[in-house]
Amino acid sequence: MAESFFADILHLLVPLPVILPLFAAGVKLALGTRWTKLQQWLSVGTLSAVLVVGFLLMIGSHQLGPQAVQVGGWDAPIGITLVADQLAALMVTVSAAITLAVLIYSIGQGMAPKAEVAPLSVYQPTYLILVAGVSNAFLAGDLFNLYVGFEILLTASYVLLTLGGTQSRMRAGAIYVVVSLVSSVLFLVAIALIFGATGTVNMAQLGERLPEINEELRLVLEVVLVIAFAIKAAVFPLAAWLPDSYPTAPVPVTAVFAGLLTKVGVYSIIRVETLMFPGTQLNTLLMWVALATMIMGILGAVAQNDIKRLLSFTLVSHIGYMIFGVALGSELGMAGAVFYIAHHITVQTTLFLITGLIERRGGSTQLDKLGGLVRIAPILAILFFIPAMNLGGIPPLSGFLGKIGLMQAGVEAGTPLAYTLVGVSVLTSLLTLYVIARVWNYAFWRTPSEGMVAEPGTVLEDTEADSSSTAALGPSDEAVGPSSRFGDTAVSAPVVTSVVLPKSMVGSTMALVAFGLALTVFAGPLIGYASDAAVELMAQTPYIDAVLGGE
């Protein structure tokens, strides 16, 4: 009786990660610039509720299996289906935690001294729409609804990426939109081809029908889908757009993009490869792609002098670990990939937020303009050190555990290519540690020369990825720069260096550092959950039965 009641509650909860942010965004748009404090609490409360819902979905999907909801009462495959299995529930939960922390960080950035006072009518509603799009993509039970989720992401992310309207942001936004549109067109073409071949776009039904069609046609459909998702996941050689697009955005936007949006692409690859194309012929090709992604990404990071660009290249590199786990096509590899996704979303977002604090305290994100932060900002040094070591894979942190799990799966596969990838994984981890140590030595440890670090109260021109564009303009009483012309949210205002960092910015960053450490402390249960999710993914039947009613 209690189990039946809990199942009924879960069915009501499944749509909420999409509905709640959309509803809150609508309310905020209606309010405009009125009741700013109330709007901030509305945003925080909404994402807190999504976090709670995600956690309950994790518990429910683990105990009762995948939970499917037919929106509008139309049964699958006719209606819109939302499905919360263990993987989807985990992704919703982690993304809610990350977006909540970044939202609080951005509110603190707007409250910082000398920050531009501007309406919240653009940033926060768009941010909530972005969260809704992410949740919709994770919960989508059919390809077209997944496409809708991606388009929501594209629309919201373009607005966020170009906040402030500076030349570099508009240029980066244009590149981002063109690349995203190419991916979306490929995705739409794939949907049309799949519908023409099978008569459905419902993923559970496709899991039953695709094995029955011609093998060559099935391979073509798979290749088009994987290419579309690989562009969004920033997989080499389709990742050149990312390091030039993400670092130009305001720090909170860059953090949530880097930590979360690429993982939507990885999630989609996992979903179609396990549910629609099990035992794929592309596994060998995906392993080569994973290898190239790891190497090219980390070599790009080694060559960087700007922390944001360096982290952007490490982001590309570590996508390779996730593709490695997927390409192995085993339960152990899939479990490693699921665990590593949760780890990497958290750590990568945290490091970008800390980079924003470094810029606010030291006046730059360029390594040749930083130094001595360990003495003048010891708390900031600690906040950087922990997730940096986690990203580098230092034991016993979650990054080490995730990489060990993937390497173990590679050794279990026993093929020469798998062994090669295990070796490349070790090399990539060592080079990641090298670039992180380089940031530590330059920005924190070395003694800066006189005038190297910007004085408190220095107004920085709009932060760019290009080293020549992050220039100190000198002390000023007012924030100046291109962003002031547009009257958008203070998240895009010029950065002003300060000895005392805003409490909510530091607090939200501390919370994410603690969340990253929690992944280590509770690694046993989380690895068990990831293993169960992998078994469920590889089995297919639980997902299909939940959607189609076991018919």
Describe this structure in words.
The chain has 551 residues and is mainly alpha-helical. The chain has 21 helices and five strands. α4 (86-111) packs parallel to α14, α8 (203-209) crosses α21 (541-548) and α12 (283-302) runs antiparallel to α13 (307-328). The longest helix is centred in the first third of the chain and has 32 residues, at 167-198.
Rg over alpha carbons: 23 Å
How much beta, percentage-wise? under 5%
* Shape verdict: globular
Structural class: mainly alpha
**Main sheet properties:** 3 strands, antiparallel
Report the order of strands and helices.
Answer: HHHEEHHHHHHHHHHHHHHHEEEHHH
Instruction: Give the quaternary arrangement of the chains.
Output: single chain
- The overall pLDDT, averaged over residues, is 85
How far from one another are the termini? 25 Å
Strand order of the largest sheet: 4-3-5
Which stretches are low in confidence, meaning pLDDT under 50 for 5 or more residues running?
111-119, 462-489
Helix content estimate? over 70%
Number of helices: 21
The overall strand count is 5
Protein name: Na+/H+ antiporter subunit D
Transmembrane segments: 12-31, 38-59, 87-108, 120-138, 144-163, 175-199, 219-242, 249-270, 285-303, 310-328, 334-358, 370-389, 417-437, 511-530
Region (Disordered): 464-485
Pfam families: Proton_antipo_M (PF00361)
